[in-house]
Design goal:
This protein is α+β, with helices and mostly antiparallel strands. It contains six helices and eleven strands. Strand 9 and strand 10 (195-198) form a beta hairpin. It binds adenosine-5'-diphosphate and magnesium ion (MG).
Length: 208
């Protein structure tokens, strides 16, 4: 299959149709990065972005900067990473890290995946899957199916907006079919009382 990876800017724009995005800007110079980071305030997240950069954490391409004093050094380090074209400056989002994904399967067609994100995805393998498109009821069932499902019901004072998660799952499943997405990964999708925020996105579409 002829597949194309969307640039980060395009990928964020696409997922912005069904989830929230953090306040963010792709910056091309040290000055621009510094100004926008200061505007957002601290802590702030800086990421090296480039067509050849994939697993950012592994190569030190994600930096959480806690104070203005740390900013200059972080920016210099990120721009010196091989393949760094821009720095993505993002608001720091607190919440439960989840994963929302789409895969086009040869047999089933589009499949949507939801579960706990970040390192938890790999450790607990706590995910649920459905064939697209899904209804609100299907999406709610997906949450209940998870071993960590209680987290989405306000367990121990953790506040997440369950309706937004359901909307995100349904929205992703609809868009996947409409735009012929081959693969999409939002990891993490950070969920809190204000909604679900996509902070890391990868999208592959079918080339026409
Ligand atoms: P990659 O998956 O390429 O290593 P991410 O952009 O997912 O890079 O960042 C790695 C981790 O850093 C995330 O799993 C999350 O824990 C944290 N992180 C990234 N962006 C933010 C953000 N805007 N707010 C809070 N935490 C973040
Ligand atoms: Mg990630």
């Amino acid at each position: 299959m002829n597949v194309k990876k969307l640039r980060e800017e395009e990928a964020f724009e696409l997922v912005g149709n069904f989830v929230k995005l953090p306040k963010q800007k792709f910056c091309e110079s040290e000055e621009e990065t510094k100004n926008f980071a200061n505007l957002l305030g601290f802590p702030v997240v800086l990421k090296a972005v480039g067509s050849k950069i994939v697993h950012k954490t592994e190569i030190g391409a994600v930096k959480i900067v806690h104070s203005p004093e740390e900013l200059n050094e972080a920016i210099k380090k990120l721009f010196s990473i091989e393949g760094c074209e821009k720095i993505l400056v993002q608001e720091f989002v607190k919440g439960v890290e989840t994963i929302l994904g789409i895969k086009k399967d040869e047999t089933f067609g589009h499949v949507v995946l939801f579960g706990l994100g970040g390192i938890y995805t790999e450790i607990f393998k706590d995910i649920s899957l459905r064939v697209c498109p899904v209804t609100n009821e299907d999406a709610e069932e997906m949450l209940h199916e998870l071993k960590a499902g209680k987290i989405f019901e306000g367990f121990r004072g953790i506040k997440v907006n369950k309706h937004e998660i359901i909307n995100a799952i349904v929205g992703a499943s609809k868009l996947a079919v409409k735009k012929n997405i081959v693969e999409m990964d939002i990891n993490p999708l950070i969920c809190n009382a204000n909604g679900c925020f996509a902070v890391d996105v990868r999208v592959f579409v079918q080339r026409l």
